[in-house]
C-alpha cells in the first residue's frame, strides 16, 4: 500500500517563517490561531490523513460507490465511519463563522489541512470539501433564514452540500442550461431538469444533502443573464429545522469514470423539486462564483496534493529499487546493483517534482492569506489589494497546479517503471485521480482565457501591475546580496519575459482576439513559473537568514539546493512560453476546420 506523511515541517516553515502568519493577529480569528494551536491542528490533521484516510484510498478506488434501484447510493467500506470522525472532529467548521457553530479560524489553515486530507484520499475529501464551498456561497448570498436553517448543520457535517451546474448540453457555457424554475405562490420554486457530473450528489454519509442548483426562471432572459441560483435540499426541512419529506431530487446514475471512484459522481434528476432562490433573480452566477472560486483554489490544492503523495512514494521506491550502477562507480558495493536514486535522470525527475511541490505549497499559503485579508480586514485598501490578488491568482493556481500536478504524478509513476503501471502499487491511481482536476471547475484552457481575457485588463490592469511591482521590488531589495544572486537574477529575467508577454498581448489581442486565445495557456504557465520563482526566492532568503542565525539543518540545506535547481533547470522555461506567445495565432488558426 502507498505511504504518506504530511509535510508538517514545510508547512511550519511557510506559516511561521516565510509568511509570518502571526503578523495577521489584528484580523479576526488569527489571534485564536496561535503557534501552539496551529501545531495541534496540523498534527491532528496529519494523524487523520495518515492513519484513517490513507488506508481507505485503495479501498475506495477498488469498490467505488454503489447505486441501488431506489436511487440510494452507498459509499465504499469505511467511508461512513471515516466521515463521522471528520465531522465530529470539527474539520468542516474549522474556518466557518462562530455564529453558525464554526471555529472562526483562518481559511489559510483550512487550505493547509485540505492538502493533507487530499493527498491521503482525494475522492473522500471531496465530500466535505464541496460542503465547505456550498457553505461559503450561502454565507455570502443566502438570506438570513436560509443561513439559519442550512449552515449550522453543514458546519457540523450533519448535512453535506453540492454544486449543480453542468448539464448534458452545457459545461463552461452555462447560458445554455435548460433546467427550469417555476415560482410558486408561497415564494418557493419548482425545479425541473437534469444535471450531470455532480460530485457527491448522492451518498450515505450524511442525513441530508443541500444542493445549490443553477436554473432559469420561466420568462427569464436567454443566456447567462437569465440564470438564477437555488437551494434544493434532498430532504425538505420543516420550519423548526427538523427533517420533513423527500424532495423531488434523485440520483439517476453514477458516472463510470477514470478515477476518484470513491466519490459518487452523479446524474441528478430534478422533478418538480422544491427550491428557494438564493440572492436575486437572474443573478445566480454571482452566488455560484463564490462557490466556484472556493472550489478552484481547492482544486489547485488537489493538483499539489496528488503531486506530493506521488513524489513521496517515488522517493521511497528510488531509494530501495536496485538497478544498474552509478555512472561514477558503484555506490552500494555490498549489493548486486545500486539503488536507482544514484542515477542523474531519476534525481532530475524527483527534484523537478519536489521543486514544484514546495513552490506550489507556498503559492497556496500566500493566496489563502490574501483571501483571509480580503474577507476579514477592516482596511478597505487592504481588502481591495487582497481581492485583486485572489482574482488574478485563482486561474493561475487552478490551471498550473493541476496541469503540473498531473504531469508529476505521471513522472512519479515513471520512476517506478513497470511496477508503477501495476495497480497493486498505487501509482497509477494517483495518475487517474489527478486527471480530473485539470477538467472540472472550468477546464484549464478556460482558466487561461479567464486570466488573459478578464483578469489582466480588469480595473485597468491594477492587479497584474501590483504583482509586477512586488516581484521587482523584492529583486531590487536583494539584488546586491551575493548569496541571493543565483536566485534574484533568474527571477528578474523571468519577470521580464512575463512583462514582455503581457505587453505583446495588450498590443496584439485587441485587433486580433485569436492572438489572446492562442497564447493564453502559455501565458498562464509563464505566469505560474514566475510565481513559483518568486516563492523560491522568498523561501531561500528566509532559509539563508535562518542558517546565518542558527546554523544549517538538513531541511534548510535541502531548501537551498532545491531552490537552485528550480532557478537553473525549470525557470528558464519562461523564455519558451514567451516565444510561443509572440508567434501569434497564424498557424494555429490557418487550417480550415474540415482539414483536421
From TrEMBL:
Stated name of the protein: 3-methylmercaptopropionyl-CoA dehydrogenase
Species lineage: Bacteria, Pseudomonadati, Pseudomonadota, Alphaproteobacteria, Hyphomicrobiales
EC number: 1.3.99.41
Transmembrane regions listed in the UniProt entry: none
Family according to the record: Belongs to the acyl-CoA dehydrogenase family.
Cofactor: FAD
Pfam families per the UniProt record, alphabetical: Acyl-CoA_dh_1, Acyl-CoA_dh_C, Acyl-CoA_dh_M, Acyl-CoA_dh_N
UniProt xrefs under InterPro entries: Acyl-CoA_dh-like_C_dom (IPR025878), Acyl-CoA_Oxase/DH_mid-dom (IPR006091), Acyl-CoA_Oxase/DH_mid-dom_sf (IPR046373), AcylCo_DH-like_C (IPR036250), AcylCo_DH/oxidase_C (IPR009075), AcylCoA_DH/ox_N (IPR013786), AcylCoA_DH/ox_N_sf (IPR037069), AcylCoA_DH/oxidase_NM_dom_sf (IPR009100)
GO molecular function: flavin adenine dinucleotide binding; oxidoreductase activity, acting on the CH-CH group of donors
Residue ranges annotated for the Acyl-CoA dehydrogenase/oxidase C-terminal domain, each copy included: 282-451
Keyword list, A-Z: FAD, Flavoprotein, Oxidoreductase
Organism of origin: Rhodopseudomonas palustris (strain BisB18)
Chain ranges of the Acyl-CoA dehydrogenase/oxidase N-terminal domain: 80-158
Top-rank lineage group of the source organism: Bacteria
